[in-house]
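batch_manifest entry 22 of 60
target: DNA-binding response regulator, NarL/FixJ family, contains REC and HTH domains
source organism: Amycolatopsis arida
requested by: lab member K.T.
priority: normal
notes from requester: please return tokens only, no post-processing; we will run our own comparison against the previous entry in this batch. if the run fails, retry once and flag.
--- input ---
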Amino acid sequence: MIRVLLADDQTLVRAGFRAILDGEDDIAVVAEAAGGADACGLAREHRPDVVLMDVQMPEVDGLEATRRIAADPRLADVRVVILTTYDVDDYVYGALRAGASGFLVKDTEPVELIHAVRVVARGDALLAPSVTRRLIAEFAGRVSRPAPSPRLNALTDREREVMTLVAEGLSNDEIAERLVLSPATAKTHVSRIMTKLDVRDRAQLVIMAYESAMITPGWLD
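--- output ---
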């Protein structure tokens, strides 16, 4: 069962998401929060698999709440998905850097919401939609003269190749097909990269790839 915490200051939004998610046999909404501070407290109490986090909330906003959850070692297995009204938002890139695993636009279709929860719960980043990659490219492109992180020196050539493909939004299966590997081998490479670089998930790999100039923002049309 995938346990979900909803954090949004609009009661109707939470009710709508709850109705959609609770209708699935493998998903349960375990708590709701109307603000970022409550979201952090409820995350510690319930240890959900996924937090759907609104950006603009009173007192503690979604960005700060995401940062607090990502920084709490007790919540290492909790994944945050940012909810936004806009497809491009300064806050979203900041949230990804703070530890979020991806983002959803609030008017997303119900089937996409359900899929997103399942994707993030199994440890993948919600980075496949082109709008997400475009957002990362746009804001990473503002970094002046990015320099490779010294931590990248720990990677093998094959691991660098895999990390570049992760940054392009490819899934493990797609990476396996591109590099003529088994899906299990691709997954192992990704896991080892995350361990070596000490990052939470694939979203953080993407951020590091852009900000270390492993991949440049201009690759998208």
